[in-house]
Amino acid sequence: MNASARPAGSRRADFLIRYAPVLSIAGFAVICLIFFAWGSPYFLSGGNMLNLFRQSAPLLIVAIAMTFVITTGGIDLSVGSTVALVNALAAIALQAGLAWPLVVILMLGVGAIVGGVQGWFSAYQGIPSFIVTLAFLTGLRGFALLLTRGYSIPIAPGSWFDVLGRGSLGPLPVPALLALATAFVGFVVLDGTTYGRHVTAVGANLEAARRAGIPARRIAASVFVLSGIAAALAGLITAARLGSGSSNAAVGFELEVIAAVVLGGTSLFGGTGTIVGTVLGTLTIAMIGNGLILMHVSPFFTEIATGAIILGAVWLNARVFARLAGPGRRQ
Amino acid sequence: MTAEPLVALRGIEKTFGSIAALRGVDLDLFAGECLGLVGDNAAGKSTLTKILAGVHEPDRGSIIVAGEDVRFPDPAAARARRIEMVFQDLSLCDTIDVAGNLFLGREIARSGFLRKRAMIDAAREMLAGLQIRIPNLTATVGSLSGGQRQSIAIARAASFDPLVLIMDEPTSALAVAEVEAVLTLIRHVKARGVAVVLITHRLQDLFRVCDRIAVMYEGLKVAERRIGETSLEDLVSLIVGSGGA
Ligand SMILES: Nc1ncnc2c1ncn2[C@@H]1O[C@H](COP(=O)(O)OP(=O)(O)O)[C@@H](O)[C@H]1O
Ligand SMILES: [Mg+2]
User: Residues A117, A177: contact at Cβ < 8 Å?
Assistant: First the structure.
């Protein structure tokens, strides 16, 4: 990693610069994997790995959508509250006897609308997304509490709805498959489509994107529809897994999601997003939580460790990235 | 000039807060002609051309393209009329690569999927045609030099068959050979019938490619001269505001 020795036009150096954030989180994920495999014989077992994927599915699904939001230079703090609202609404709707496919469609619609309203306020009314989604973080949670009066609402077991959270296809948990599918679609869309290119352009330079004829506001608003739908899907999966709906679900979830995305190397300044990084960042956070429990570390300590590791990894990332990129561009 | 102007701006006014950036400007652009736009800093050159490019909407006044009264609510509308502009601030996306910036807003795609290979090949051809040398088309634009960035902004505006090509101080970061290439480019597109607007502080360049020169002063067009009827001294005195129209 010696920048001064970089020969002009070296393909390897170009590769390193471009993928430094992803490479550094990949290295970090591997270190975590080795550390926990060493710390607990059970960690690498198939059962635990499948469990880890099942549990981290909601996080991954929302983190993929959040990558789009952050790539445009926005932020969505409302996803945890959207999960709670959908969680509660879905349980209420199922209890009222609505057919489960209808409930699924309705809830995804609720997510899209909640996201669309926030996108409109931030992109068309010029209110920073931090403020808009902070207001929704509070408001949506309150709405969910009002609906449930704080109680957990049971979902009658035995319907196909359970499959969303507890089902398996062969050995693979359904939530994990949904998350993998989301990640795959997210990767293709962000990296390989005109829409993904416009998302990046809006985050890199909104006015330049507009001047290039891109519908910049519509793009900036649309990513909140994505995060709303993703949060709704996460809410459905959580409700199905726990067999109940609760307005207290997913408290602090938005911060975990943002941590996973930033850990993956997506820039909070916008203009640079990586789905591969987000997948690795999510898995790293999931591994830390899971591994420390297996090593019988106090769950309180897990929170401290997660915080320290996020800061450490992002710091390393920034240092390595800055070093590799040389004195050229400063963000 | 007997021909009908390709573009006519009439009575354009624009105020930003308390600043009257434009106070009623008329301007005609003709096909195959280069108009030099000069004036002191803050005279309103960029604002006037940005209005033609759809970046700002005028408070008052009209834009007439090929005899038709048009409104440009956004830059996409001006682009649809084949009006292209090299912005003074370049308006590039630093985290996107060279090919991506050249095709920004008109990506080559098949049912929504980018054809990156095709864009890189086309970008190489575009740059070669303008004698711009950028070795790595997949490098992000933020990592390039000021001159390279300016060249990319020029290539982007000039390469998609414009009817009107506006260049706002396009040569400020360019080396001597690159400036020559831009002047050659202007002659080429003029020969193809494009109406060119060139804003520059390098007055000697104006005499090499322009047919007419308009001078702005504090939001007004104070003079317009055919290139044969003016001189460097004349222009200088008009720009600093000591001459008359
Ligand atoms: N977006 C804007 N907001 C506020 N004031 C502006 C804006 N754009 C230009 N101005 C003001 O309008 C005047 C004309 O600016 P400009 O057209 O950029 O001049 P020039 O390009 O001739 O140097 C200046 O006083 C400038 O400060
Ligand atoms: Mg200017």
Answer: no
Nearest residue of A to residue B99, measured between CA atoms:
A197
- The verdict on a CB contact (< 8 Å) between B92 and A194 is no
Which of B94, B135, B136 is closest, CB to CB, to A271?
B94
Could you tell me if A66 and A304 are in contact, meaning their C-beta atoms sit under 8 angstroms apart?
no
Domains of chain B: 7-90+161-240 (3.40.50.300)
Distance from the Cα of B133 to chain A's closest Cα (Å) equals: 14
Alpha helices in chain A (DSSP H): 11-39, 46-71, 79-95, 100-119, 129-148, 163-166, 174-192, 194-204, 206-211, 216-242, 253-263, 275-294, 299-325
Selected from 3.20.14, 1.10.3470, 1.25.40, 1.20.140, the CATH number assigned to the domain covering A20-323 reads 1.10.3470
pLDDT digits (tens, 9 = 90+) for B110-168: 999 999 999 999 999 999 988 888 988 999 999 899 999 999 999 999 999 999 999 99
**Which residues from B are below 8 Å from A73, CB to CB?**
none
Record the tokens describing residue A15, joined without a space.
């590769």
Strands B83-86 and B164-168: parallel
> Chain A closest CA to B73's CA: distance in Å?
11
Nearest residue by C-alpha to atom 12 in ligand 1: B21
A-chain residues within 8 Å CB-CB of B157?
none
Encode pLDDT of A64-120 as tens digits: 999 999 999 999 999 999 999 999 999 999 999 999 999 999 999 999 999 999 999
Residue B13 backbone phi and psi in degrees, to 5:
-125, 145
Encode pLDDT of A119-167 as tens digits. 999 999 999 999 999 999 999 999 999 999 989 999 988 888 999 999 9
Number of alpha helices (DSSP H) and beta strands (DSSP E) in chain B: 8, 12
So what's the ipTM on this one?
A: 0.93
Given CB atoms, is B107 within the 8 Å cutoff of chain A? yes
Dihedral sign (CA A83, A84, A87, A93): negative
Per-residue pLDDT at A249: 92
For residue A267, what is the nearest residue in chain B, using CA coordinates? B95
